[in-house]
Design brief:
The structure is a single chain. The protein has five helices and 13 strands. The protein is an alpha+beta fold. It has a domain of 75 residues: Thrombin, subunit H. The strands form two sheets. It has a seven-stranded antiparallel sheet. The chain has a six-stranded antiparallel β-barrel with strand order 8-9-10-13-12-11. A hairpin with a 6-residue loop joins strand 6 and strand 7.
């Protein structure tokens, strides 16, 4: 009888200890650790930039190459020359040597004016057409309402993958930006987010935010729309270092033919 009672007491003590340990673990484990995108944000934050066209407008952007190529929205550059200030997450400010625009999408590219040998952090592009599906999580980063909110993060889902905004009544004034294949997300955004990246949960830039109807009804140009032109963009910026010293007709005809094939101006 004594041995049975001792065995029962030991069993009760072990059960109580186990319950106490589980309760302590549940109580001390922070709820926010159940879901977090902190690591994804940490990995891409250095490549997200604030873009200011001095005296004209401001927006957001993202570095996509170590030599300082940045994508932003075309309506930030808006077809006219200007002076740019591009601010990195660590506060470093660079100017832009060149700006070019995609003629078929609301996307522009800046080439930063970097000191020789400078290499910048950059993000991977998700260029596949099915890189993200409706219902998948996405997050955006940028400067909502200006540089005071630089590199703010918001999370949502991809709610539609190919929205046509060109057919919407009242949106005719935006036809020049060709918003006919747009990603729709629920990530909160405001003016100032324009040109900023939309990321998937692997930290790949899959869209360029350009428009919205409400704080959680926003639209982005899919990176898949211009992914295959990135090599051409890099080549274009590389050619900008050269001057034409003898403009022969044959050279001019070749240049115009080549320019017509790349969709960029």
């Amino acid at each position: 009888m004594g041995k049975q009672r001792l065995s029962w007491i030991v069993t009760l003590c072990l059960t109580a200890a186990t319950v106490a340990m589980v309760a302590a673990w549940v109580y001390t484990k922070p709820a926010y650790q159940a879901f977090s995108i902190a690591e994804q944000v940490r990995s891409v934050r250095p490549a997200v930039v604030h873009v200011e066209k001095v005296g004209v407008c401001q927006g957001s952007g993202c570095i996509i190459s170590p030599d300082g190529i940045v994508f932003t929205a075309k309506h930030v550059t808006d077809g006219e020359g200007g002076t740019y200030k591009v601010t990195l997450d660590d506060g470093t400010v660079y100017g832009a040597k060149y700006a070019i625009e995609d003629t078929e999408n609301d996307v522009a590219f800046l080439k930063l004016d970097l000191p020789p040998g400078t290499k910048l952090p950059y993000v991977e592009l998700g260029g596949e057409s099915e890189v993200c599906r409706p219902g998948d999580g996405v997050f955006i980063m940028g400067s909502p309402l200006g540089s005071d909110n630089f590199n703010s993060v918001s999370f949502g889902i991809l709610s539609y993958s190919a929205r046509n905004l060109n057919t919407r009544p009242g949106w005719e004034q935006y036809d020049k930006y060709d918003w006919h294949v747009m990603m729709q997300t629920t990530s909160p955004a405001f003016p100032g987010n324009s040109g900023g990246p939309v990321f998937d949960m692997q930290g790949r830039a899959i869209g360029v935010l350009v428009a919205g109807q409400a704080e959680t009804l926003n639209f982005a140009v899919p990176v898949a729309r211009f992914y295959e032109t990135i090599d051409t963009v890099e080549m274009w910026f590389a050619l900008c270092r050269f001057d034409v010293v003898e403009d022969k007709p044959a050279v001019e005809e070749w240049y115009e033919a080549w320019n017509a094939t790349i969709r960029l101006r």
